[in-house]
Amino acid sequence: MDFDLTGENSDYMFYSLLYCSVTIVFATAVLTKFLTNEIRFGFRSFLSLVTLFLGEPLCQFLVKGPHGVGTFALACMLVYWILPASRLPAKDKVVLITGCDSGFGFAIAQKLDSIGMKVLAGCLDQCGKGATQLKSSCSERLVVLKLDVTNHRDIENAKSYAQELLGEDGLWGLVNNAGISYFAETEMTSEEIFQKTINVNLFGTIRLTKAFLPLIRKSKGRIINMASFVARIPINGTSAYSVSKSAIVAFSDILRLEMKKWDVHVSIIEPLGFQTNNFNEQVLESRLQEIWDSLDEECQLVYGKRYLEDLYKSYKELLPKIPTDLSPVVQAVSGALLSKNPRERYPCSQGADILTSIYSILPIRLADKISKLVSVIPKNSRPVALEPSSHLVP
What we know:
This protein is an alpha/beta fold. It folds into 2 domains: about 5-80; about 95-375, Rossmann fold. Helix content is about 55%, strand content about 10%. The longest helix is centred in the first third of the chain and has 29 residues, at about 5-35. It starts with 6 loop residues before the first helix and ends in a 21-residue tail after the last helix. One of its GO terms (molecular function) is oxidoreductase activity. This is Retinol dehydrogenase 7. Pfam families: adh_short. It comes from Octopus sinensis.
């Protein structure tokens, strides 16, 4: 079959290709803004859809020819121009980050320094390996502060330093990232382990937030709290950690409502499955022994050390599969700090946003089955008292 590619047919195909190119460029640009939360559903996003779906056919069939393509391209440019700017300028904005010795905090500090922000990097050990690497790899703008989030003197010293640095200006951002994790079921987690986890993860976040809120309010800035996927979907063996992170979500939700009158934005970061210092083999071994040593004799007899070891063995086997690329979390924090319209929540894992949304509307029995599916406790592992040969009373 022969096709006539001359005359009107040739012109029609040529202009159709031009319209298609303009449409793809415009749609991609608008979609990027939407996915990065720079625009939300409203008049301007509606105008983008109208331009996309009605502008092309109207220009193609009413204006026609090169004038039609030019009119459509101009309309797309004008609509895109009135959309919100992508980001606020980063230069000279001051941000305090906790837990910068390693992991998320370390990576976030490096990234924010690289885009021109003034970073106050809180480290547990001011002279440690992480702090030293930060100083050598970042600009002179970055300042390492000794900051243990459980130590009131460290917090007051950090606040005094920030006040002296800022003068009459406010602090733009506070990233509450410092945290620890212990993995064990509730009965195998001593009260001391619960207190230690909650003291760092929850009360550390509250202490820093209350200390620096006056400086944040002054700049109408941002507070970013590091929560977790397990705060929304319970997973066996994460009892103390889940409790602390769930409390951070509740604290952040209340704080977000309270801060609206001050034009302060509060965001939650929800990572899932990233390899940080909490997930290296040496730390896991140390935490396992600490948990076992904290148990009373009865609990040790009922559960047995092998049951706890099976849990930690599962985590160790996961290590090679857990991504070491922390950029999704780093980008989320950057967006929460610099987006004109930051999100309330930033799920950081492929499919996490969809899964948590579905989970929240499921019947509890079905939701529990999903939690069981994502559990890391081996299916064939059971406490000693539940073994068929055991004479212990569960």
